[in-house]
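Researcher: We're teaching a course module on how sequence relates to structure. For the next exercise, students receive a sequence and then see the predicted structure as C-alpha cells, so they can try to spot secondary structure elements on their own. Here is the exercise chain.
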Amino acid sequence: MSEIEPFRAIVISRLAHALKAEGRSVIHMEFGQPSTGAPPAAVAQAHRVLDADAMGYWESAPLKDRIVRLYDERYGVAVTPDRLLLTCGASPALVLALSSRFGPGDRIAMARPGYVAYRNTVKALRMTPVEIACGPDDHYQLTARALAALDPAPAGVIIASPANPTGSVIAADEMAAIADVCRMRNIAIISDEIYHGLSYVGPQPTMLQFAPDAMVINSFSKYWSMAGWRLGWLLVPPDHVERARAFIGNLFLTPPSLSQHAGLVAMDEQAVLEGHVETYRQNRTLMLEALPALGLKSIAPPDGAFYIWADIGHLTDDSVAFCEQLLRDTGIATAPGVDFDPIDGHRFMRFSFAVSTPEIEEALRRMRPWFAARALI
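Model: And here is the predicted structure for the students to work with:
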C-alpha cells in the first residue's frame, strides 16, 4: 500500500482546541473554512424541513436545476442536470472523479504546492501522483508548457484555480492552452473549482469553457459558507454519466437531504454571500499590508480563495515545529507548508484569512512581537 501522509493542519487544530479547552484564546487560521455559518435563510429552511420531512436517500431535482442555472449565469456554459452528481462535499467528488475515470497505476499530474488530498487520494487509489513544481515564475500554477514537457504524458491532471494553498489563479489564455495540450495528448482533466466566487481579480472562468469534457468539482463549503453541511457536486461529460452513477451509487449514495434543501435556498442569498467576500477582501488587504513588517516578504499572489502562502525559510527549516510554537506562544493556529508541498514546504506556512476582521486585527497584534523576536535569533 502507498503510504498516506497525515494532514498536519489537523494535528495543529487538535492542539488548538486543547489549548482552548484550557482557557486559552485561540484564533483559527489553520483550516480553509469560513468562520461564518450558512446564510440565515438556508438555516431557517432547514428548520422547516426538519419539522415536516422524514427525509431519506434523495437527489434534489430543484437543486440540480439551480446549479445548471449557475453555470449559465456565471459562465455562459450550458450543462444538463443529468451530468450533475450531488456529493457529500468536494472530497467524495474527488474520489468519485478519480476512481471512475482512472485505474491503478495511472499517472495523475498536479501542481506542487497543492491541496494535500490531491496527492494522498491519488496514492490511496493506487495511482501515481506526478507533482510539478510551481513557483513565482509560473504564478504558483500549472502551465501548458509544463504539461507538454511531461514524458510520458499522464493519464490525467488536476487543475485548481483559485488554488489551495496559494490563492493563485490561472489566466484564461493559459487555461485555454492547458486544454489544448490535454486534448492533443489525451490527458483527462479534473478541474477543482471549489473556490469560484472567491476572487479579488475578477470573475474566474470554468475549465468547461475550454474543455467541455472536463470533470468539474465544486462544493457549498467555501463561497456558500456551508462546510459542515457536506454538500457538493461533480459535473461529468455525457459519455461518462452512466459509469460515474454506478460508482456513486455503490460508494456514496446521496448527500444529506437536509443539506440539499438548505443549499437550494443558499444559492439565492447573494447579498449575504457577497458580504462574506467583502470581509475576506478586507482581511486580505490587512494581511498584505502587515506581512512585510513581520518579515514575510515572499508570498504567493492571493488572487482568490482566502489564503496567504508565505516563505518562512529565513526563520526555520521545520514548518511543523514553527507553526506549533506560534500556536503555543500566541494562540494563532496556522497550517505548516509540508502538507501542501512535501519537498519545499518545510520552509512555508499557510494562513487562512476566512475569519472575522477583528480576529485578523488581533492575530496581527499578537504576531508582530513574536515574529520580531524570531528575526533577532
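Model: If you want an answer key for the exercise: The longest helix spans residues 270-290. DSSP finds twelve helices and twelve strands in the chain.
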